[in-house]
Amino acid sequence: MTHSANHALVFGGSGLIGWSVVDQLLSGYPEKNSFAKVTAITNRPVNPSETQWPEPPGGRPELHLVSGIDLRSHTQNSLSQVLKDSIQDIENVTHVFYFVFTSMADDTEEVEVNRKMIEVAIDALNVLSPNLQFVVFPGGTRGYGIYIPGGTFRPPLTENMVDNLPQDYARTCVYPVFRQVLSNASSGKKWTWCEVCPDTIVGFTPNGSQFSLALHWAQYLSLYAYNHGIGPHTGGLEQPDHKIKTQVVVPFPGVEAAWKAKNTPVAAKTIARFSIYASLHPKECGSGNGRGQQLFNIADRERPSTCEELWPKLAAWFGLVGVGLPSPADQMAPRELPGEYIEKYQDVFKQYGLDKAATSGVSAGRKQLDSVGTWLTFDRHLSLDKLRASGFAEEPDPTDAWTEAFQKFREGGMIL
Ligand SMILES: NC(=O)c1ccc[n+]([C@@H]2O[C@H](COP(=O)([O-])OP(=O)(O)OC[C@H]3O[C@@H](n4cnc5c(N)ncnc54)[C@H](OP(=O)(O)O)[C@@H]3O)[C@@H](O)[C@H]2O)c1
């Protein structure tokens, strides 16, 4: 088998999708020799021993981790200099996985800041990396109008719907701007690009994440289990004032309609694998050549999931019994949402030396993630027809992503 010279550059290498792209490349996906080198770029510092990335088979691809590159603080010129100084073989970068996103309170500012970051990065690479072949970036179901109460389109959501997004709403969302930036920057160049569009992304990050529902619910369920005398830390130390119960019920943190709403979650691993697959299949997956913009919905399974199906399985991993709404008697009692619960009890993490759990949870998104059970009360499942037509056929069980992430959170000291 021939060894390729491909060099992957992953922006946002410690984020929800970026971490997984690096993980899959180092695991030898799609083949051990598909890439010679992976450079993972992060903004916040990352301790290599905490990444949980595997040793690549036979030492290929090589990994280079470059931390401390804050894209917000750069112009194209200053970023070019930094990339040139810090990335070995920048001139041989062939595939770029751009998984950076900064959430901000003000939508207009958020669009502008994220536009500038991708623009300086791609403009710098247009100068520094003449062998560039492909760029992948993420969109999301926000781009189908799910932030409008009740949703915007009737599911299954298909890629062509993004063209009919109400104008006022479209202006609050950065994905159309990303498409424009990539179309302009690739014009007349030999590289092309695609966008991947997930709903809820389920995966591990070593450093916390802005909108990781898996981490949010994992911290909630682990503290809830602990407070009810269940879990790996409940044997050793003195317990809180609770009796150990054999059947501890944890109601879904939300309302009936959200419990029943159809959705299509996706493992970060599945997004990573498709992103790599797409980057290696530019004819089928790239934009241009009459194909227009290439946007691909992505999910683990064509058949939609519901929280009704998922919640009991997630709770069971923590030794709990996950149910829908609280019993009629308990419905009258005020309920603490996961974010409030985590805040109230996070000292328990510190008590067990899990400082990282207390400091590296979800950041910007805690409130938004709490509203998943109250606001996402409508069906929003994605059509996977275009994904399947691209030749990508993987269909993992959606529950696996959650339990694999929970295991990694535990190994990484982010939950009890
Ligand atoms: N989370 C979901 O369930 C979900 C669902 C649908 C779509 N999406 C989309 O997927 C994308 C990523 O999602 P996320 O926000 O949940 O991921 P995330 O895990 O918070 O990752 C964001 C990444 O961006 C990097 N980043 C942020 N500011 C940066 C800066 N100034 N300079 C350089 N890098 C910077 C972060 O690096 P550091 O950590 O090093 O700062 C991190 O690696 C977004 O476009 C989001 O809209 C997410």
UniProtKB/TrEMBL annotation:
Species of the source: Marasmius oreades
Pfam families named among the record's database cross-references: PRISE
Domain PRISE-like Rossmann-fold: 8-412
Name recorded for this polypeptide: PRISE-like Rossmann-fold domain-containing protein
Source organism superkingdom: Eukaryota
